[in-house]
Design brief:
Elements: H1 4-7, E1 17-26, H2 31-39, E2 44-51, E3 57-66, H3 69-82, E4 85-86
Antiparallel strand pairs: 1-3, 1-4, 2-3
């Protein structure tokens, strides 16, 4: 049984680790270059996961090596500015 007060606690994450983001981009973007530009020297991998029904958007699973929460959130913010959607 889970107590309601436990639901408000932040999850314990052991850093460093590879953090996965789901990134949705317009189909015409050079994904490799986009990720390299945003992530610079960070270690990352990505794979295509889905193309939208009308073919205008593609989603990718992006895995980035992060050292701490601040770095993880900073990458999330960068991705938000250069993509259609990030999870």
């Amino acid at each position: 049984m889970v107590h309601l007060c436990e639901l408000n606690k932040e999850a314990l994450i052991s850093y460093p680790l590879f953090w996965e983001y789901k990134v949705i981009l317009a189909t015409n973007k050079d994904v490799q270059q986009c990720f390299k530009k945003l992530l610079k020297e960070k270690e990352f991998t990505f794979e295509h996961s889905h193309t939208s029904k009308n073919g205008r958007y593609e989603s990718y699973k992006l895995s980035v090596f992060v050292h701490n929460k601040e770095e993880r959130l900073e990458i999330f913010e960068k991705l938000k500015t250069h993509s259609q959607f990030v999870l």
